[in-house]
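haha ok so turns out i had the wrong file open the whole time. this is the CORRECT one, sorry everyone. sequence first:
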Amino acid sequence: MAFCDLFKEFIPIRVDEDIYLRQHEPEKDARPFWEIYYDEENFTYFGGYKRPHDWNEEREIRFEESRVRGFKGKREYPWVVTYQGEVIGQIQLFNFFNHNTCAEVGYFIKKTYWNHGINTKVLKAVCRFGIETMGLERMEAFAHVDNIGSNRTLQKAGFVKEGTLRKRFEVKGELYDCNVYSFVKDNLGSAVY
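then structure:
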């Protein structure tokens, strides 16, 4: 299947009987995602989201619609992570490069689901999808050096640490170092699923 054809119809992923990855549904997902963003602890090591101070349904629906537009524009493949039907986070492939053979992966889940192995399972499923369905050769991920959980999750999912980038992440106005990880096609055969 050609790369551009993958964006004609969104492909959900069933990870296991509890974990399901689906497309964003802006009106349905606006409130659950706002609650995740509002809890500052969810983004202790990540500066990509500005914490909204108040609930504004129109603003949050527009934000969720941007994920759908990103998919339709072939810029990102974003999944909503659900656990037993509850919206608990997001994972996405984005920043496609090298003739769409490489991509960056980014993810988060709400704090109440940390340390349950969910992110590891989700990352493995998305890596398999990226390689087997999208034809990717390489996926990259970045983790704040102090974010022990995220670094451990990437390693458990079969990612290999390639080094540390100095002053790469901006969190709350300060620059921090981050570790860069990769998952390449060759990892798929050796990863435990």
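The first strand starts at residue 13 and ends at 14.
again sry for the mixup
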